[in-house]
Amino acid sequence: MLRFTLLGSGSSGNAILIETESKKILIDNGLSFKKLSERAKAVGTSIEDLDAVFITHEHTDHVAGIGVLTRKLPIPIYITPATMAALPKTVGIVEPIRFFESGETVQLGDLLIHSFSISHDAADPVGFTVSHKGLKLGFATDMGHCSQLVRTRLAGCHALLLEANYCPEMLRLGDYPPVIQQRIRSRSGHLSNQDMASLLSEIQHDALQRVVLVHISENNNHPDKVLQMAKLALKSSTAQIHLATQDGPTPFFEVCL
Q: Which among 115, 118, 67, 69 is positioned nearest to 88, based on CA atoms?
């Protein structure tokens, strides 16, 4: 069994909880300890028995809660040295630390967590795939460009968590100043609905079971637009499509062979 829930997705705070029969990890934690605990409880689980937290990059919405979390619970934080050096001072003391380099694989019991480099305006941003007994979950968000490496690492996943951050037209006509718009659209920014659909169309396969679209902008996107693009990309696929929101957790999604 491999299951996951997004306890938060977006600029208000990101946290993905992944569970097997014997292990439980977080990818990122931009939520307060109270909010993280409450949202875990809301979906029928707890953070008290977490085995580890893996960090994608140092932006506040991904790391704001890791300092308090490690001070309350003895949970190791897996992070690249460059990301650790770039953590905001507001995070406070973070320990214990387990360093890894982008491209390395970490084994925790029956879980294999594979890291890979992505393109984002951060010190050393990474995406992850998580493998368990033949099942594979892929996670790639906060990236402005889908490299061949990303496509290769996400190939063959049974579940995908992909960014669909903005609609180009909504961004262009919105209130964001040009410099912010350019940052979002850049190769080190975020994925548009079209970028997501192109990637999804290329890497879909018959064994793909679930696609969860994440980091959807409340200002520059709309769920209907995201869903429409994803459905077009998947066409006749039987994979189920889900949208994550910023104001609450998703249900647990399970993948199986």
A: 67
The fold of 2-249 is Metallo-beta-lactamase; Chain A (3.60.15)
Confirm whether pTM is higher than 0.90. yes
Q: Quick check: helix, strand or coil at residue 242?
A: strand
User: For residue 104, what are its two tokens?
Assistant: 């390395």
Mean confidence (pLDDT) of the chain: 96
Domain boundaries, the chain: 2-249
Instruction: Report whether pLDDT(236) > 90.
Output: no
C-alpha–C-alpha distance, residues 255 and 257, integer Å: 7
Measured CA distances, 153 to 65, 197, 203, 247, 254 (Å): 28, 17, 10, 30, 21
- Conformation bin of residue 133: beta by default, left when phi > 0, alpha when psi is -120 to 50: left
In angstroms, the CA 101 to CA 111 distance is 18
User: Measured between alpha carbons, how far is 127 from 111 in angstroms, rounded to an integer?
Assistant: 16
